[in-house]
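With this grant's support, we have settled on a layout for protein records. A representative record follows, to show the layout.
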Amino acid sequence: MPDLARRAAQSRLWTVCKQAGIASRISSFYWHAKLAAHLWSASATVGGHTIQFAADTRTEYQRVTSFVGERSVVESLLTDVRTSDVVYDVGANIGTHTCFVSKQLRDGIAVAFEPMPTNAVRLRHNLSVNAPASRWRVAELALSDEDGSGQLSVEGDDYGAGKHALSTNGDLSIDVRRGDSLINDGTYPPPDVLKVDVEGAELRVLRGLGDRLDDVRVVYAELHHDLSAAYDTSTEEIEQYLRDHGFSVERLNERSDAYHIRAVQE
């Protein structure tokens, strides 16, 4: 079906539809029919775990079925997660990482940080239908290097939209906390495994853990070349920060604008 959709989009007829101004309506009808045929849901299997996700929008469906190119990252993450671990998923979106982690845990717990309200609603739903409530918690806030409030720049309000970022002139007021503050006040236990995808603000998350970062066993992070510059840092500085805290860093995959790393405490 993805190949069919691709071929249709490249066809001469589709070009005519765009020129006639009806392409968006046809696309909307196609996706409505496709999602309805799948009963507004989509499933995915990774590491022997099958997860059922709600999928009311094209964005959700594509995120679940394609993993936005991150299936290999989820597979690697699951090989590092032990059943008793505390796992922080910072920038959890609708749970394409957290749900698999929670499914694998037994005595451990996954803490999913997601400040965007629509995504947090869907995240709770997806977790609730796939893992016992004892294995996960959702924190509707952003982790950073300070405690207080902040602004979230919002790009789309569909479930699964994933380009939201902290900004000085954002669209939405949110709570912002340091990771070590939440640990020190007993809100959440300290993490053994950390996954971070926060559109360029990864270094702020790492700094906000303070000395607690030294006790993290494995860090997974998506590092963004251009987006990091918006936070006065660089991917090289983020990698070096991890090395300075005792981690060895390897790259898992790479795109033109970003790449994933796996950092292991030596």
User: Anything to note?
Assistant: The chain has a mean pLDDT of 88. The radius of gyration is 19 Å.
